[in-house]
Amino acid sequence: MPSLQHIIATGGILAALTATASAKIERVVEKSFQVQPGVHLTVSTSGGEIRVVPSSDSVVKVVAKEHIRAKSDEEADELLQKLDLVIEQHGDGVVATASYQGGVGFHFGSWPPVQVDFVVTVPSRASVDLRTSGGDIVVGDLDGSVRAHTSGGEIALGKIGDEIDASTSGGNVRLDEGRGSVKLSTSGGNISAGRVAGPADLRTSGGDIRIDAVENTLTAHTSGGDVRAVFSGPLKGDCSLSTSGGEVKATVAQGAGFQLDASTSGGEVNAAGLTITIDRGGMGKSTLSGAVNGGGPVLKLHSSGGDIVVASRKDPA
User: Which long-range contacts (CB under 8 A, 24 or more apart) does 281-287 make?
Assistant: First the structure.
């Protein structure tokens, strides 16, 4: 009976031979549609990347890049027969989907043998709904809403004018600017955002969270990193920043009034420079709560394993 090491070694050799024997053949399918500026785009693909590029034209151009693992064009043609590729216009929307049939059961090596990346040019006022089971999602500056989900890639968003709901199971999430409500989540990466004008909910199970300019309410939680947020102007409502394993730092506008509720199980709270009427705890201790500049909305900060820092700064004129 062959040993486990022999089986593993044989499998590795077979995988290498398979990779050598199967080249990657590429095919491209393109379609364009005349649309209204506020068109809704829906894109779905199994394992491929999705990129959305804004344009000043009233046209949606869909480019589907098919990556086929095959030894010849004939084999590629045969594999493509099982690819369900749809690029259509339906009323006020455009739909582009790619799924490979016959995926039930165990498959040796990479699956599916055909992977489709989408590059779509849309009017800048478009809204998009994007899903992929394993690739990155990149969206440029759009005035519409963005829904984006990937099971194993990164998400990068530009300046988005309407609501955002973006999630990934295994990568980083980056947002340049969100002017509507913002919901970002990842199970294993960092979250970073520039200006966030609407209510925001940011969550990660294993990375850092950083927001450069918070202009509305914020909930930010990580199970394994630091949380850093800069608040522009007065707090618009109650906010919560928390981590199970890092530092929390909140920078507030000088003179902003709020109710501070800060606590840590494994560090200390530092709020030097704030005008605060303390009702519990104290500077350098594990808890500090009280009214800052007369009080206002609650700013709740918590860490299970690090320090908490509250700093103030002058807002630019």
Answer: 287/262, 287/263
Listed residue (228, 136, 236) closest to 191, CA to CA? 228
pLDDT tens-digit map of 225-259: 999 999 999 999 999 999 998 999 999 999 999 99
Q: How many alpha carbons lie under 13 Å from residue 149 in its C-beta half-sphere?
A: 8
Q: How far apart are CA 286 and CA 290, in angstroms?
A: 14
Q: What is the pLDDT of residues 15-65, one digit of tens each?
A: 444 444 457 899 999 999 999 999 999 999 988 999 999 999 999 999 999
CA atoms of 163 and 186, how far apart (whole Å) = 18
CB contact at 8 A, 179 and 198: yes
Domain limits of the chain?
Answer: 190-317
- The pTM for the full model equals 0.89
Q: Rounded CA gap, 148 and 3, in Å?
A: 46
Tokens linked to 303: 């860490």
